[in-house]
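Q: Give me the 3D complex with 2-Phenylacrylic acid.
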Amino acid sequence: MTSSKLFTPVRFGALELANRVVMAPLTRNRAEPDGNVPSALAATYYAQRASAGLLITEASQIMPEGQGYAWTPGIHSDAQIAGWKKVTDAVHAKGGKIVLQMWHVGRVSHTSLQPGGVAPQAPSAIAAGSKTFDGTGFVDTSVPRALELDEIPGIVAQYAQAAKNARAAGFDGVEIHAANGYLIDQFLRDGANKRTDAYGGSIENRARFLFEVVDAVVAAIGADRTGIRLSPLSPSNGISDSDPMALFSHVIKGLNRYNLAFLHMVEGATGGARDAETDAKMVTLRKLYNGNYIANNGYTRAMALEAVDSGAADAVAFGRPFIANPDLVARLKADAPLAEGNRATYYGGGAEGYTDYPTLEDATA
Ligand code: 8OZ
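A: Here is the predicted complex, encoded as structure tokens.
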């Protein structure tokens, strides 16, 4: 047992968390193929993990065009809202808190996943050069089309509608997915955004879309129920920028004015190893933020205790460790061994590798 602050309550805006261990968003590709509706198994899966201080759901498309992989859940149809309601009810029944991660993939998609089989939406017609999963296998992402200037307000409005849908589905709030090379990140970076209008060129212009989305979501459900995730130094999904430190200094300083529930940062390359140079840059960026900070990416128990006890972070999000350890909080508290997840069952499939990982108590009973 330990008396670390990691296991103490904290308030993030309107969200009262029982501890500072957060479940990071994890794509699992198990929505019902008919309509991309969260399944009954999803309710079991999230409820099993409800002892986290906060659950952040897998990324969920805000509109059909926002989908980039097979069987990811949406938050745009009535059936999806009803499916998510079962998830939030199950989590709340166990005393947990849960926010929905809102996602538009932009160019990280394939024509076969787009309504009408057309090219995916993006700031500019530049392919990501990455792969996606179309339901049969891994395929190259398609060359996208550049959004028309007059289409952008409709997408911003869709984020606000998705946030309202999330609240209707019983979520405690939302996380705006602005990380990992998806649509918002594509607008931010000069490697993906070659626009010559108000949404391209200068850092201020490239950040315009992000701030319009934040404005709209905050107006829809309140800043105290809105969080955002950034990955300033991650090369995920073919994203690149000539000066990420200048870009994200502007973004993070700009986020200070909202008093959001939290800022959640992927520190370094998403899912990758950590290095000292990148960590130092992340510390520089982190210091620019005045609000609640959730740290993420490859944290061990020792790193998480240190981060929270030193005040470097207010909470730590764990991703992959939550797959095989539904009782991760209890295991961290007891300094118990962690189970290893089976990579073959990360994406797609049913209960195997999803809802069949035992708690330590059950495993040793
Ligand atoms: C893994 C596989 C597919 C999507 C992300 C939503 O990187 C994802 C994702 C992760 O943010």
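A quick observation: Residues 27, 59, 69, 180, 236, 270 surround 2-Phenylacrylic acid (CB under 6 Å).
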